[in-house]
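note to self: dont lose this again. the chain is below, predicted strucutre after it. 86 aa total, dont forget to put it in the shared folder this time
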Amino acid sequence: MDYTPHAPFPPIATSTVPRRDRSSWERPQLASQDEAAYRLGVSRTTIWRLIAAGEIQPVRIGSRTLVSNKSVDEFVARQSRNGGTK
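---
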C-alpha cells in the first residue's frame, strides 16, 4: 500500500477589504497638537493659545486633545485674508 499524504491545509482566509496604495491615502482629518504646531511653524504652547482663543477648534477623544486639519486650514486662510492679524 502506497502512502498518500493528507491534502494540504486550506488557504488561510484573508481580509476581503482591498488594500490601497499608501501614496493614494488622504490626509487624516485630525492631527496632534505637535503635528499642528509643526505644520504652522509655531510652538505647542501657541497651539494651546489658539485653541483657548477659539481660533482653532479642538477635538477631544478620550484623554487626547486633537486638532482638525480643516480648522488649521481655515485658520491659515483667515490669517492670509487679514494680513496675519486676528
